């Protein structure tokens, strides 16, 4: 026992030290990347293998057949791809689904690709169940045939519980038909519409969203699309959103509860979508529709908003019209009809209520149904005239910004047929007042009641008053009347007077109507006009010519007229127009214009001859014409006086086929240095052609007969032919300081002138003429012509001759004398040369035998002495002898 403790206590001899033991090797994780790489390779090989299997085996036909079962149409597939990445996915591209022959031969659906997602659980069980079907850039044709059936009717099935690519369920299975897919997704699609073989230009583009089951026999939809129309480039068509649930197409989409919203659209593009035409309206539109089915009927609630409405060429304004439409509708697709049971139109200060019925049943004769089946009724409305003024500003230019109107109008209306046509309407205004700082007096309308029915327009007695109770104004009374039992349209009557017609013009101008066409008329006016009943029922009053009278200027004062081409107004106007069914007569009693007084008559009959006139004027001077005319229009005076002759005139007030003819008498017309007395002429105006004939006047003790022919085009052309007799040369030249006291005698002859242009300078430079003249007892009072020729030097004095003659032409601003002869008691004088329009001359004169000159013998055979050349000014010419070549050293 004692040994053990000894042993325990005995020291042990130390052994050789041992090295520290190495730790066991750590566990390696390098197999994980290898496993991942192996799985990736396995997936890649599986993808390739399955794709090859589908491509090179009968599986491709089975899958294509299954797609035909899914979509209910024959299918053509370009190729298949299979992928396990992200889940088992089968992709077919491109894919075309054939159409049912009952609806045509174009494709039913075509897509760049169709992607079908498969369920892992079904694959693990050896089956292939569909998940989500995605269509990329599909194009769907929706066709309605002549029987009223849609090609989509049997496409979407009623969704049951499950489906697979495996064998179909057994006959004794109690399950409903297999679901074909659980979700249908659409990306960047297009929907086209056809009526039989006719393709409708309307379509939906950029269609995106999904359709999925929402319980037995129901589908949930969430789609958005952009409307489009063929051959039209739309800028802001907006986006349409559709969401809700509905039944399959085999149950005609019933039951259904859908919400449709259309926003961010312009009014112009919406109108172009439905009508294919830009009506020139600008603005924004938005709409929301909620639709539910009740049996075969759809109940709809709609609300639309229209904002910033205005004409395309007018600027956007803060007060541009805006309104909302709320409507309850019942749509019956089987009966092809729709009823709007309650509709409300709300503007900022106005409202209207109405109902409507529409029927688009395909019948051969729609005329018997149009008036009854399609009808719109405005049952109640209250229109604040401020809203009406906003509509006028939005669609009519030049409405004054400071004009205001107070009053309300109540209207009812009925429209029938398609497109809707107004059947009857009534508008009542108890009182309304229009005012503006630019108006001298306000304008008020009272007891206005307008009615339209198939027999025409009727108007109860109404009053248009200018000025307040304490203001001096005027008034017009207007109404309509018809014979009892007559089917003719009623006759309209307008009568009244204004002490200042400018009030009427200013009121119309404030509302944007330029009834004066730039002509400022002022002064009193009185009228009594009737628009008789038209033989055609339903015609408008302005379709018939008024009868009655209009007077400018009364006992209280005369009228004044200022036109754009005059510097001064035409004053003291007193005229009366009598209007009859087949004629119009205007009697101008007096008018002061161009420094003289005018009077005359103007008549027009419906015989195709145009206006007939007879106008008389007092003393008239060309200088007064120049003083009255605006200087900037002097170069185109004829265009400003007769604006219908100006191709650049902004208001072509008279048509191209305007015709007028008559007689013009002027007591005295002065065109320095000419003064024509008792000028009478016949004038014919035909479009741009002016013809003056039988012109006769007294000219400085003689007579003048002539004619004028003018083509008043952009570059006018004038032709004048005149004969003059017994013109006193002393009186003719007395008016010109540089020619006074130089000549005397009595001249007779003829002249023909041609010139063109719009300015005096152009007229003068283009002047051409031919003529001849005979002078009895000619005298040259500032020059002794015989001594001047004898001595070849200027000799003062006077020269008298028995007679003279000349033939001449005009060209290049000078008068060319081919033959000039003077016969007197001494040897005669003969010559040629020219006189410039600036009164300088270059003439060659020489003596000839007087007897030979009287018999017309040629100068070369009877010349006496040396010829003399006269140059320089006409009053003091330079004289130089012309020596023949034989006498030169």
Can you walk me through this structure?
The structure is a single chain. The chain is 14% helix and 49% strand. The chain has 889 residues and is mainly beta. The chain has a six-stranded mixed β-barrel with strand order 2-3-6-7-5-4. Strand 29 (570-580) and strand 30 (583-593) form a beta hairpin.
Question: What would a concise description of this structure say?
Answer:
This protein is mainly beta.
Topology:
Blueprint (H helix, E strand, L loop, with lengths): L2 H7 L21 H26 L2 H13 L3 E9 L5 E9 L11 E3 L1 E6 L1 H5 L5 E7 L2 E6 L38 E13 L2 E16 L4 E12 L9 E9 L8 E11 H9 L5 E14 L2 E15 L11 E10 L4 E10 L4 E9 L7 H7 L1 E10 H11 L8 E13 L4 E15 L7 E11 L2 E4 L2 E5 L7 E8 L9 E8 L3 H9 L9 E3 L2 E7 L15 E6 L6 E4 L7 E11 L2 E11 L2 E10 L5 E11 H7 L8 H5 L17 E13 L2 E13 L2 E11 L2 E10 L5 E12 H6 L8 E14 L3 H6 L2 E13 L4 H7 L7 E2 L2 E9 L2 E10 L4 E9 L3 E9 L1 H5 L4 H4 E11 L3 E5 L8
Parallel strand pairs: 5-7, 6-7, 32-33
Antiparallel strand pairs: 1-2, 2-3, 2-4, 3-6, 4-5, 7-8, 8-9, 9-10, 10-11, 11-12, 12-13, 13-14, 14-15, 15-16, 16-17, 17-18, 18-19, 19-20, 20-21, 20-22, 22-23, 23-24, 24-26, 25-28, 26-27, 27-29, 28-29, 29-30, 30-31, 31-32, 33-34, 34-35, 35-36, 36-37, 37-38, 38-39, 39-40, 39-41, 41-42, 42-43, ...
Give the tags.
889 residues; mainly beta; six-stranded mixed β-barrel; 15 helices; 14% helix; disordered N terminus
